[in-house]
């Protein structure tokens, strides 16, 4: 099946690498996922990125000259090859035009991220999801380790804000005074009453976030609160604080995977916000295939 592939597509995150083979129309022929993210590869320099990528493609039987397009942290400083940020307002349809091309037997195009000067902010990867979503106007929420809220006008990323929600959950639940009170391995369900209550507290501004966080610890001591319930409350507090701080008005397009999408959708429903869910992985692939078609049409 690999013989029918026209492009190799990859999303290179900080901790994960996803690689797809697709035909010319964007239909996925094969895929692989690994833990060989930037955090693993960066100490080995550009050659490590090249070796990991070739290893993944070889395992899928890809042709040695199959052209590739990569989004995400491969283009960061300390990645495979730095791809300079496009400044806002950034037309998502022109992201491929700013790709850095590594020519060789296999040409590799590394896509740029987007930067905002004031307040200072950057993204890598989310801009490809936005391009692949087909959206042109309005608020977009992209949950993750570092969640993005993006304002889009006429297909341009005009402004955006990053929230460290996912990273804060990890740090607070595993490396803080709250660790003994939280079961970080517990899967938080969208209909968990403790999650919903945490969202509501932050959106209604019933209590400051810092004070609410310590109350998790105090509740464990005084009331023997369940660690799983505390995990749900922590998630609700952090997502609720993000939703409140974003100050987005009107419908929200939520580009997310199933798990995070369900939690954010529940948070939006709790506070009466109109939303639409768009599958994040599908948007990533569509953004990558559109870039590949634009970059390599007539080139190979």
Quick structural summary:
With 300 residues, the protein is of the alpha/beta class. The chain has nine helices and 15 strands. The strands form three sheets. Strands 3-2-1-4-8-7 form a six-stranded mixed β-sheet, with helices on both faces. The protein has a six-stranded mixed β-sheet with strand order 6-13-12-11-14-15, sandwiched between helices. The chain has a three-stranded mixed β-sheet with strand order 5-9-10, with no helix packed on it.
Task: Reconstruct the topology from this structure.
Elements: E1 7-12, E2 17-22, E3 28-34, H1 38-41, H2 45-59, E4 68-72, E5 86-87, E6 90-91, E7 100-102, E8 108-110, E9 114-116, E10 121-123, H3 126-133, E11 138-142, E12 147-153, E13 156-163, H4 165-174, H5 193-203, H6 209-223, H7 227-246, E14 252-256, H8 258-270, E15 275-279, H9 280-296
Parallel strand pairs: 1-4, 4-8, 5-9, 11-14, 14-15
Antiparallel strand pairs: 1-2, 2-3, 6-13, 7-8, 9-10, 11-12, 12-13
Helix pairs in contact: 3-9, 4-7, 5-7, 6-7, 7-8
């Amino acid at each position: 099946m690999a013989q029918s592939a026209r492009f190799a597509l990859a999303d290179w995150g900080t901790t994960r690498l996803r690689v797809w083979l697709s035909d010319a129309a964007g239909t996925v022929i094969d895929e692989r996922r690994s833990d060989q993210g930037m955090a693993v590869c960066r100490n080995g320099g550009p050659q490590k990125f090249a070796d990991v990528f070739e290893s993944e493609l070889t395992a899928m039987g890809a042709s040695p000259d199959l052209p590739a397009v990569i989004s995400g942290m491969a283009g960061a400083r300390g990645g495979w090859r730095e791809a300079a940020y496009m400044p806002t307002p950034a037309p998502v349809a022109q992201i491929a035009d700013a790709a850095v091309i590594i020519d060789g037997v296999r040409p590799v195009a590394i896509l740029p991220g987007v930067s905002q000067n004031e307040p200072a902010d950057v993204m890598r990867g989310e801009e490809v999801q936005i391009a692949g979503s087909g959206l042109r106007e309005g608020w977009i929420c992209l949950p993750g380790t570092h969640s993005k809220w993006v304002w889009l006008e006429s297909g341009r990323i005009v402004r955006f804000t990053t929230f460290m929600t996912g990273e804060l959950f990890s740090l607070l639940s595993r490396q803080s005074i709250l660790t003994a009170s939280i079961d970080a391995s517990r899967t938080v369900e969208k209909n968990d009453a403790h999650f919903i209550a945490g969202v509501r507290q932050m959106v209604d501004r019933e209590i400051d976030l810092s004070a609410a966080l310590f109350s998790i610890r105090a509740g464990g001591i005084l009331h023997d609160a369940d660690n799983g319930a505390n995990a749900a409350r922590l998630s609700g507090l952090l997502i609720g604080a993000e939703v409140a701080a974003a100050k987005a008005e009107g419908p929200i397009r939520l580009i997310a995977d199933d798990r995070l999408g369900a939690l954010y959708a529940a948070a939006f429903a709790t506070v009466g916000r109109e939303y639409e869910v768009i599958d994040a992985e599908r948007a990533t692939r569509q953004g990558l295939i559109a870039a590949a078609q634009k970059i390599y049409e007539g080139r190979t």
